[in-house]
Design a protein that fits this description.
The protein has 460 residues and is an alpha/beta fold. It has 13 helices and 21 strands. Helices cover 30% and strands 19% of the residues. Bound molecules: zinc ion (2 copies). The site of one zinc ion has 4 residues, from loops.
């Protein structure tokens, strides 16, 4: 009998369509069902073709970012009636993200004429939601998401707050005396709204761990608080000149963190009251943050972002017609300035203008438009769209580090604390995974450290 078998179903590995299969004596479980944010159609999906229809016992979601939830409806069509376990916060956000994903896929379909797009529709999401199970933190559940009476259930699932975004969780799976812990995306440190992770610290047999920032050393003496001060000073200086500031952000997580930082700056009178513009998806997600503030672990629980920051909500057309010269802050998604998004459209006006300020606050793929602008030399040109003319880059640019992912040293010390027999490294580029491999070999010589290749089953 196989006690535990793991298969990475992420197509092409790296950070993309995150999805993992765990075979247990009680049945097979899928962990996350993401969509690759920069690919389209079949290429953006996990390797669901490896799964037998109707044979998966349960799916467990760690959080509602697109790279973890985007293909869930597809999996649910294939595995009809399968329960999907997630926290209530993840469920609320997943609903918004998936409906938005249908709109994005429909637009791609019009432009690219793909055969297999959209991969699912609004109706599919509504049907899929009937099988979603809302799971509390810190309570052992069975594979149906019901409270476990541990003696009768051979497998238990427990969610632990991951401190990454609203609803995010790591998940402990215990089966036949073996323990398996999946970090999901995690942050151990407090952000402005999000409180740091609260993970179990007892020894574990297998640790499945994200490695996003393995290749991102921080400068000597870096603290989030100091970075917040540097950001506040930069925002104040630009506004004092009467300039406007554009901040490309992800609609989920980073937008709410930036809104809370700006609220603090205004309250502490570091900046004057300033109009703030956000996009439609960002405002919907922010409303979920507000409505759940009493039910989730977070800082500033009484801060209602939509009420107290009261941003202007801008659509694509508004962004085309807005004049960035007036003193204002534009926190527009996406964080990578992906083509067709608000931040990409707006950047075409901001980039050539030497009186404008552009502040980056999070991760961007080096090959994305935001990645290109981050490394561009002032006075050169940048290609923001695949077909349009390059845009000259004259505006002010500043880069700040407010990651929602754990710093690599924190992940390393967590792994050392729980002393796993096996560590599986995922959710990172090659150099990030290599750094963790080296450090873990040195710190835990008895531990097997693997970067599981896609599609290959590993007996644990
Ligand atoms: Zn995430
Ligand atoms: Zn992720």
């Amino acid at each position: 009998m196989i006690l535990m078998r793991f298969t990475n179903l992420t197509r092409g590995a790296g950070i993309g369509s995150n999805c993992y299969r765990l075979d247990l004596p009680e049945g097979s479980v899928i962990l996350d069902a993401g969509m690759h944010p920069e690919r389209v159609g079949h290429d953006a999906t996990p390797m669901f073709e490896e799964l037998e229809p109707g044979r998966i016992r349960s799916t467990i979601l760690t959080h509602a970012h697109q790279d973890h939830v985007g293909c869930l409806p597809l999996l649910q069509i294939q595995q009809h009636g399968m329960p999907v376990l997630m926290t209530p916060g993840t469920a609320r956000i997943a609903e918004v993200m998936l409906h938005n994903s249908v709109n994005v896929m429909t637009r791609q379909q019009e432009e690219l004429k793909l055969k297999d797009n959209p991969l699912y529709g609004h109706k599919t999401i509504e049907q899929a939601q009937r099988s979603w199970r809302y799971c509390p933190l810190e309570r052992p559940l069975d594979l149906d998401g019901q409270r476990s009476s541990s003696d009768s259930d051979s497998t238990t699932v427990t969610f632990h707050d991951a401190g990454h975004i609203l609803g995010s969780a790591g998940v402990m799976i215990r089966s036949e005396g073996k323990s398996f812990f999946y970090t999901g995306d995690v942050n151990f440190e407090d952000q402005t709204i999000q409180t740091g992770a609260s993970f179990p610290e007892e020894p574990v047999d297998v640790l499945l761990m994200e490695t996003t920032r393995g290749d991102a050393p921080l400068p000597e003496g870096f603290t989030r608080l100091k970075e917040e001060e540097r950001f506040a000073k930069a925002v104040a200086a630009a506004l004092q000149e009467g300039a406007s500031i554009t901040i490309p952000v992800f609609a989920l997580g980073k937008t709410q963190e930036v809104m809370a930082m700006l609220w603090k700056m205004q309250r502490e009178r570091i900046i004057p009251p300033t109009p703030l513009y956000v996009g439609g998806l960002s405002s919907k997600i922010t409303a979920v943050y507000d409505s759940m503030s009493a039910q989730v672990p977070r800082n500033l629980p009484n801060l209602s972002l939509m009420r107290d920051v009261s941003p202007y909500v801008a659509g694509g057309r508004d962004i085309e017609s807005l004049n960035p010269r007036k003193r204002a802050i534009y926190a527009l998604s996406s964080g990578m300035m992906t083509e067709h998004t608000l931040s990409n459209i707006f950047a075409r006006k901001v980039l050539p203008d030497s009186s404008q300020y552009l502040y980056f606050v999070g991760y961007a793929d080096p090959k994305s438009p935001a990645g290109e602008v981050r490394k561009a030399v002032q006075g050169s040109t940048v290609q923001l769209t695949s077909e349009g003319a390059p845009v000259s880059f004259n505006c002010h640019r500043e880069i700040f580090t407010f990651s929602a992912h754990a710093r690599r040293e924190d992940l390393l010390s967590y792994a050392i604390k729980v002393r796993p027999k096996t560590i599986l490294l995922v959710h990172g580029d090659d150099p990030a995974i290599e750094w963790f491999k080296r450090e873990l070999y040195a710190a835990l010589p008895g531990t097997k450290v693997l970067a599981p290749p896609p599609g290959q089953a590993i007996e644990l």
